[in-house]
Specification:
By secondary structure, the chain is an alpha+beta fold. 26% of the residues lie in helices and 16% in strands. The chain has one domain. It binds calcium ion (CA) (2 copies).
């Protein structure tokens, strides 16, 4: 997870930039450390049982370059899985746009919105705010691990960080365009994991419930790539990411403290569900949602509000075996 931070109007912090670097090279002091306090949130299920969710309250300590401004906004962001990205980058934008219904004209309670950046459909990031994989790569290189590129040629040191600016670095840029291309291409072609037990009875029952509950209204099973994909062997592919790539209002409980003109606070990109069931095997946990507050699929569903509330309520009122089947299906994707 990374922690983005900025002023209320979206401008970067004078002393700390756009993202907290909680680690640094030798002889440079890291900016700060993240601290998390958890508040219990009880949810009464339809069968009378209780689930205790955990709401995170984020803060920072060990600030190395002065106090944070009083209007600072903290935006924690869990790192996404990085397979299937070439398929998503080459998605048929017309298909996504056809699903958008920002003013809910068909009155089904679902009003997904397409995000555009410089005329290109946003597909990546928790807010669908990034259109091209390469843009995500160079932004992560400079902010997450401190590697400069032609796009971000300067070292990631603010004017308040003299030790950082004076430190030895690997050139400007440290990673040239050919290596950025190679890294981007590598990420584009990381393959999608196959499903593990698509024919199991529980998974089949869960699949039916996924439709019945309305999950598929946003977590759309199928997408397609365009005919003129780059490179061409990604063309005309059908793939099953379980997302519409639109942003949806998920309610106040998941609201982000960011300012609305940068990213709409309550809106989040429909998270792709493919590979979700493998997160525990890869990471040793299955912390879901943008700030990792949900421990597993059931908790993630129970955090859904806004457009996701009717589906969440169907899940809450379902009996235990139905809930288990739905979770089994999602974990099989
Ligand atoms: Ca920083
Ligand atoms: Ca609608």
């Amino acid at each position: 997870m990374v922690l983005r931070w900025h002023h209320a109007d979206g401008t970067p912090l004078h002393a700390y930039g756009r993202q907290m670097q909680d680690q640094a090279i030798a002889n440079v002091t890291p900016e700060a450390k993240l601290v998390v306090r958890w508040e219990p949130v009880e949810v009464r299920m339809g069968d009378g049982s209780t689930v205790v969710l955990k709401r995170p309250v984020f803060g920072v300590d060990r600030l190395a370059y002065g106090e944070l401004p009083s209007d600072v906004r903290l935006a924690p962001r869990v790192a996404p899985a990085v397979f299937g990205l070439g398929l998503i980058e080459n998605v048929d934008a017309a298909m996504v746009v056809a699903w958008a219904d920002p003013s809910d004209r068909n009155s089904d309670g679902i009003s997904g919105r397409a995000i555009w950046t410089n005329g290109n459909l946003g597909k990546f990031g928790w807010k669908s705010q990034v259109a091209a994989l390469r843009g995500q790569v160079v932004a992560a290189a400079i902010e997450d691990i401190g590697i400069s590129t032609d796009e971000f040629p300067r070292q990631n040191c603010t004017s308040a960080q003299a030790g950082c600016a004076a430190a030895t670095h690997g050139g400007e840029p440290e990673m040239g365009p050919r290596d950025v291309d190679r890294l981007t291409r590598y990420l584009a072609f990381l393959g999608v994991p196959p499903r593990r037990s698509p024919t199991s009875a529980a998974v089949a029952r869960g699949s039916a419930l996924f439709g019945d509950f309305g999950c598929a209204a946003c977590h759309r099973p199928m997408l397609r790539t365009v005919a003129d994909a780059q490179p061409d062997w990604l063309a005309n592919q059908t793939f099953f990411a379980y997302t519409d790539l639109l942003v949806h209002d998920l309610g106040a409980a998941l609201s982000d403290p960011q300012m609305s003109h940068i990213e709409y606070a309550r809106e989040w990109r429909t998270a792709p569900l493919w590979g979700l069931g493998l997160i525990r095997a890869v990471n040793g946990h299955q912390q879901l949602l943008h700030d990792g507050r949900a421990d597993g699929v059931a908790e993630a569903i129970l955090w859904h509000g806004g457009e996701g509330l009717p589906a969440r309520e169907k899940f809450r009122w379902a009996n235990q075996s139905e809930r288990d089947d739905l979770v089994a299906f999602v974990n099989d994707l």
